């Protein structure tokens, strides 16, 4: 079961990575289109030369397994990427750092809560699977018990029938290998010939 689950996890991971690559290419195309529309004058690049439009986009797998949620992005948003104020504004820089730290703490709490919920959901899923397997096992045991009970009743019935048969071995046989029976069941005055 673990091998199957691992294979399914790998498949879901591969699909997520493909979806993330597709989303990244779409985001790059959208950023290029937005840059072309604005003429690249505003916000084309940050001070360090990275594109401002390169933002982590959470990817939601369409039609995926409802039980297996994709982990959301725990990265800071683009508004927390760089300080937008003047470089000599110490008060503004301090406020920005406090906002960034508060956002990081909020994201960390949210991440811990999400992982705790995920563990709880996995435990519930395992518990349900275990209960289902136990129910199947109980059903199988009940079926085996009924089958054994039926076999016991059949054997008791055969023993009861054998009580009424006086002779269980033939009297003998003749030169043509026909067997002779006497005293079979209720017909005691009859000799039977089995050929």
Automatic annotation (TrEMBL):
The keyword Metal-binding does not apply. Residues 37-47 have a biased composition (Gly residues). GO terms for cellular component: nucleus. Residues 1-25 have a biased composition (Basic and acidic residues). Keywords: Coiled coil, Nucleus. Residues 1-49, 61-82 are annotated as: Disordered. This is WHIM2 domain-containing protein.
């Amino acid at each position: 079961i673990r091998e199957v689950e691992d294979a399914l996890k790998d498949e879901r991971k591969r699909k997520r990575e493909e979806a993330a690559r597709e989303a990244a290419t779409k985001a790059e195309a959208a950023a290029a289109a937005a840059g072309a529309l604005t003429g690249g004058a505003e916000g084309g690049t940050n001070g360090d030369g990275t594109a401002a439009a390169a933002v982590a986009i959470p990817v939601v797998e369409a039609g995926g397994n409802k039980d297996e949620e994709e982990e959301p992005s725990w990265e800071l948003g683009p508004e927390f990427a760089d300080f937008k104020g003047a470089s000599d504004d110490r008060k503004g820089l301090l406020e920005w750092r406090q906002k960034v730290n508060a956002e990081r703490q909020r994201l960390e709490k949210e991440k811990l809560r999400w992982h705790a919920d995920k563990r709880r959901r996995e435990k519930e899923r395992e518990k349900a699977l275990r209960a289902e397997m136990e129910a199947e096992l109980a059903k199988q045991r009940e079926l085996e018990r009924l089958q054994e009970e039926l076999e016991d009743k059949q054997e008791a019935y055969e023993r009861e029938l054998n009580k009424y048969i006086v002779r269980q071995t033939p009297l003998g046989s003749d030169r043509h290998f026909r067997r002779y029976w006497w005293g079979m069941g209720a017909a005691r005055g009859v000799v039977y010939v089995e050929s």
